[in-house]
Amino acid sequence: MVWLALICLLIAACSLYVALRLRHADRDLADEVVKLKAANDQLAAHAANCHDQLRALSDSSGAGMVILDPKGTVVHANTAAARIFGKGEGDLVGHALIQATLSGDMQQFVEDAAGKGRPFSKDFSMPGSQTRVLRASVYPLPVGLSGVPETMLVLVDVTELHRLETIRRDFVANVSHELRTPLASIRAMAETLQEGALDDEEVAGPFLETIIRETDRLGRISQDLLILSDAESKEPVMSRFSLTSLLQEVVHRSQRHAEQSGVALNLRVPPDLLIFASEDQIEQVIVNLVDNAIKYTPSGGDVCVQASNAEGKIVVEVSDTGIGIMQQDLPRIFERFYRVDKARSRESGGTGLGLSIVKNIVEAHGGEVRVASEYNRGSIFTVILPYQREP
Questions:
Q1: Contact of 134 with 126, CB cutoff 8 Å
Q2: 376 Cβ partners below 8 Å, 6+ apart?
Q3: What tens digit of pLDDT does each residue of 188-209 get?
């Protein structure tokens, strides 16, 4: 019996020990659970804060930002992305990227770049009536907004950059062409004279006249390029002067050109019209417009220069009854070296830079230049300048 009692006592002691150990283990486990829960809450709060910061950063960015899950579904799109695609932010989330872009090429690019696991960028011409170019940059995210690997797509509208790059390339090509033509002519004639034609008066005379004419043309191109460069890169040096007197002087100097072309040149301007601007540059604007109007008006036609102060703005109009400009040419006439009538322009010594100079000078003064024209009926060029006061 004693042994039985001892055995029972030992079993009871073991049970008590086990119970105490289990109680301590439960308490330790509960403490660990509490700690883990607190750590998890802290991580969740940190993740939410990071996500909020990411959203705030993306919304404040001028670039469009789209985040895609592993299936290619949009999980986040900022305001700029919605604006680029002409949709509301809610219209993008939950949908495939191609539904917004309508570009299979961009969709394939994003999928390929995401699979390679490193950033890639590429420019895309987007479908639509107006050609837009978007620069798409893909950045793989090891841990995204949903806690799984995602892909961030950053979109920047580079349409204007592409347009300027096209203008730059065209400008370099046009300058090369415009300089090459007279230089080739001068060289060919100089070589002919060098080979003995200099002693032949019937050949030498016309050749030398052509060399002088082509040299003058090169000089005009160089001068116009300098004027254009100054208009684009330098602030106009402005002062108060009489626009009335300036217009009278330009028209007076142009009368001989008009008479030789059989064109009537008229001026209508108030007696005391003042303007605060760069006198040299405004003179260049008027000279170019009047010269063009006379140049492209057949004999018997009219050119009229008029100016006024309308609603606090200086308005100068140069109108003619000349050959006019076809509608498809109107959007391009202010481009450098663009000529509507190439043959007539070269015959008259034009450089193709006159209207570009006009546009850049007027815009440098905070104004704008407009054109209205009807083919074979004439053109009206209107320069609108703000009535600026002296500082």
A1: yes
A2: 323, 324
A3: 888 888 887 777 777 778 888 8
Q: Is 113 exposed, middle or buried (0-12, 13-18, 19+ CB in 10 A)?
A: buried
Q: Mind spelling out the 3-state secondary structure of 311-368?
A: CCEEEEEEEECCCCCCCCCHHHCCCCCCCCCHHHHHHCCCCCCHHHHHHHHHHHCCCE
What angle (nearest 5°) sits at the alpha carbon of residue 320, between those of residues 316 and 322?
150
| Tokens coding 154 | 């950053």
Residues 6+ away with beta carbon under 8 Å from 378? 297, 301, 319, 320, 321, 322, 324
- What are the chain's domains? 56-157 (3.30.450.20), 159-234 (1.10.287.130), 237-391 (3.30.565.10)
Q: What residues contact residue 382 under an 8 Å CB cut-off, 6+ apart? A: 315, 316, 317, 369, 370, 371, 372
> What digits encode the pLDDT tens for the residues 268-311?
999 888 999 889 899 989 999 999 899 889 999 999 999 998 87
